[in-house]
Design goal:
Number of helices: 6
Mean pLDDT: 84
Low-confidence stretches: none
Number of domains: 3
CATH superfamily of the largest domain: Translation initiation factor IF- 2, domain 3
CATH topology of the largest domain: Rossmann fold
Number of strands: 22
Shape: globular
Strand content: 35-45%
């Protein structure tokens, strides 16, 4: 399964029994959906697919894990109930496995106590190729005291199930060009799971190496300020494309050292600064929750309806090793 920047979550399925139709309700792992489109092995649209045929399925609510059973169901409500039950079971397993969690900052403290002989890692990336490169690079790291173990590699936004797996396994989560969804963020805070977000592969491996050696330098902490949803787009002379937004959380600001990122289907499309922020015809420095505004990024114009804009600042914090 993968996240396509234009089509959303896409799963590749091999039909083993029966026939899959456009419009069928289904459940795959903890994800549910309704088949919006089917693409054959030549990426041509088709209405039905029979046994032994691979097909790309559009219409998922999220990304299932490789190996999850894909089952067509007649009752969409029942499928949602099953998905909730599976998620609850995963939560219960996570609670049973709760203990002292591993973070990169605490790694050296735990080594003398014999608590951290392995460092389990969950990897989420924007595309499969990058995920595989990361898994290969991180899997080779280690020394005589601790070895890295990649326990999951997948594409798409960091989900609640990723965090629950990390909680159960006492793992850290590494995201490359992806963001955690809202549920994942709240669960990570509750469970004490360390989520590391990066856009450069070298930074990831370098950070892990320094943590193992006890040389982790002061790190940066992201302070969320607010979110807005793009409801409309329009052309503006100076910036190309601007977005008509509704602020859904906190404040969107362009003042001071505030940064902004554009997220599409859980994947980071751009990080930079807001070049223009307006309420009606007035230039403003910030817009609060529940208000509409128009915004444009500096030197970036690939904005689409449904994108999410996140406003944040970066704070430098000392490592505690």
């Amino acid at each position: 399964a993968k996240v396509d920047r234009g089509r959303g979550p896409v799963a590749t399925v091999l039909v083993q029994d029966g026939t899959l139709h456009v419009g069928d309700n289904f459940i795959a792992g903890v994800e549910v959906g309704r088949v919006r489109a089917l693409l054959d092995n030549r990426l041509q649209k088709t209405r039905t697919v029979g046994p032994s045929s691979p097909v790309e399925v559009l219409g998922l609510s999220g990304l299932p894990q490789p190996g999850d059973a894909f089952q067509v169901v007649t009752d969409a409500a029942k499928a949602r109930q099953i998905a909730v039950l599976r998620k609850n079971q995963a939560k219960e397993k996570a609670l049973v496995g709760r203990g002292h969690k591993v973070t990169l900052e605490s790694l050296q403290q735990q080594l003398p106590e014999g608590e951290a002989k392995e460092l389990p890692i969950v990897i989420k990336a924007d595309v499969q190729g990058t995920a595989e490169v990361l898994a290969n690079s991180i899997g080779k790291l280690g020394n005589e005291r601790v070895q890295t173990v990649v326990i999951r590699t997948a594409v798409g936004a960091i989900s609640e199930s990723d965090v629950l797996l990390a909680s159960t396994s006492k793992a850290i989560v590494i995201g490359f060009n992806v963001r955690p969804d809202r549920n994942a963020t709240s669960v990570a805070e509750r469970e004490g799971v360390d989520i590391r977000l990066h856009t450069v592969i070298y930074d990831i491996t370098d950070e892990i190496k320094k943590a193992m050696a006890g040389l982790l330098e002061p790190t940066t902490k992201e302070i969320p300020l607010g979110q807005a949803e793009i409801r409309d787009t329009f052309k503006v002379p100076k910036f190309g494309t601007a977005g008509g937004c509704m602020v859904t959380d906190g404040v969107i600001t362009r003042s001071g050292d505030a940064h902004a990122r554009l997220v599409r289907d859980g994947v980071v499309i751009h990080e930079g600064r807001i070049g223009s922020l307006r309420r009606f015809k007035d230039d403003v420095n910030e817009v609060k929750n529940g208000l509409e505004c128009g915004l444009a990024f500096e030197r970036f114009a690939d904005i689409k309806i449904g994108d999410v804009v996140e406003s944040f600042t970066i704070e430098k914090i000392a490592a505690t090793v």
